[in-house]
Every structure is written in structure tokens, then in C-alpha cells.
Amino acid sequence: MISSDATSDDPLIRLNHVSRVYPRKSVSVIALRDISLTIQRGQRVAMLGRSGSGKSTLLNLLSGIDRPTSGSIIVDGDDIAAHSSDQLARYRMSSVGVVFQAFHLIPTLTATKNVELPFVFAGTPRKQRLASAMSALEAVGLANRASHRPSELSGGEQQRVALARALSHQPKLLLADEPTGNLDSTTASDIIQHLVDYSNTRNATVVLVTHDEKLASDFATRTIRLHDGHLIDDTMGAGQ
Ligand SMILES: Nc1ncnc2c1ncn2[C@@H]1O[C@H](COP(=O)(O)OP(=O)(O)OP(=O)(O)O)[C@@H](O)[C@H]1O
């Protein structure tokens, strides 16, 4: 088992001895075991590992929707593991974007309204949230489909809307959990290219969970592997 602590010029994230145990009456599940890891600003990290190895658990900790059982998670100098619920909500709203395999769009809302939704929750004035939503849709090449509902869009287009929603507040950290799992290979490459472009343009960190080795090597500047909650491999290089 390895503990990765690559020295960094400009770290965004430092995980120090992070574990996550799901307590159960009969037997507790140890989903992550003593993970230490430093991730740079602008780095594109592919996370691989068999089903149940702890990938989603780690993404949930990074996105602030879950907390570690022990250890610290320093993002931009703040230990988010020690944040209050309000602080975590603010962190998620300002610093993180998340995309999933299932696009999680609201079927009754247009593309624009779906992208606007986080701004509605944040209390952003209408004009400003519309402008942000339109510019995010433009960035993923969907300005001309702004008034369409999800059922009127292809799977790849729906994922681009979900991506626009995740990127509309220009987060420094984008987390993608198998975002191309429901897409054909050409459409998947298109989505991956959007992730790469966003990272390059904003010097944003992207962490991508995938089972696809080829996709991982096209995308990543760094590849990490989990096995049974352990970090077992950490390789720099590759990517565009
Ligand atoms: N809420 C929970 N309660 C109990 N155990 C859980 C919970 N969530 C996840 N686990 C367990 O933690 C371990 C890691 O799960 P996780 O979902 O992180 O794996 P994964 O690598 O993302 O898997 P997959 O590739 O199938 O999505 C698994 O053994 C899983 O059963």
C-alpha cells in the first residue's frame, strides 16, 4: 500500500490520513483506509479501482457531502472536515462542481432553468443568474438549445447541460463520477474534452472516476488507483 504525498508547487487539496468507516451493528465497513494525498491546482486526476474500492466515498468527502471518520481534508488552506454544515454548504456552492453518470436534470425545466437552479438556491439576482447560465451553456456549445427540456436533448447534450450547471459558478474543483458511463465513445470523448478545456482555461482541478483505462489516459495528468479502501498506485503523466 502506498501513501502518496507528491510535493507540490501549488496544492489545492491535501488529504492527511483520511479514513471513512460506515458503522453497522454487525460489521462496520471501512470504505477508505488512511489515505494521504496532495492534489495540485490544475491537475487532472483519473481515479480507478474495482467496484466497492472507495472511489465514490472519496469524491463525497472532497465535495463536502460527507465527512471523514478521521483525518483532515485541507482545501485551499481550510480543513473542510472540520467545517460546520453551513460552511460546507458555502464551500459546495462556491468551490465545487459535480457531475454524475445519471445526469440528474429536472425534466420539467429547460436547459437554462436547470443551469440556473444552483444560483436560485444561492439567492443570485435573476439577471445575473440568467447571464451566468447562458455563458455556461455557450461554453459547452448548447446556447442554441437553451429553451429545450431534457427529453428533447440527446444523452450527450443532457450531460453537457449537467456540465454547464456544474461549471456555471466557475469552481476551482470539478468532481466527475463516471460522467460518460451512459454515453457512446465519441460523445464520451467530447465530454472529456470539455473537462480538459475547463481545467486548462481556469487552472481548475478535475477528479474523474472512471472504469475506462483509455478514457483515463486520454484525460489525466495523474492516475490514482484504490483497492479495498487503500491507495495502491499513483502515477504522474499522460493526458493532453
Ligand atoms: N452508506 C453506506 N453504508 C455502508 N457501507 C457503504 C455505504 N456507502 C458505501 N459503502 C461501502 O463502502 C465501500 C466503498 O463504496 P464506494 O461506493 O465508495 O465504492 P466505489 O469504488 O465507488 O464503487 P462503484 O465503482 O461500484 O461505484 C463499499 O464496500 C460499499 O459497500
From TrEMBL:
Output the Gene3D superfamilies linked to this UniProt entry: P-loop containing nucleotide triphosphate hydrolases
The record's CDD domains line, in alphabetical order, gives: ABC_MJ0796_LolCDE_FtsE
Instruction: Offer one Pfam family short name for this entry.
Output: ABC_tran
For this UniProt record, the keywords arranged alphabetically read as follows: ATP-binding, Nucleotide-binding, Transport
Which InterPro entries does the protein's record reference? AAA+_ATPase (IPR003593), ABC_transporter-like_ATP-bd (IPR003439), ABC_transporter-like_CS (IPR017871), ABC_transpr_LolD-like (IPR015854), MacB-like_ATP-bd (IPR017911), P-loop_NTPase (IPR027417)
- Molecular function (GO) terms listed? ATP binding; ATP hydrolysis activity; transmembrane transporter activity
> Does the keyword section mention Cytoplasm?
no
- Which protein family is named in the record? Belongs to the ABC transporter superfamily. Macrolide exporter (TC 3.A.1.122) family.
| Name of protein | ABC transporter ATP-binding protein YtrE
Organism per entry:
Stieleria marina
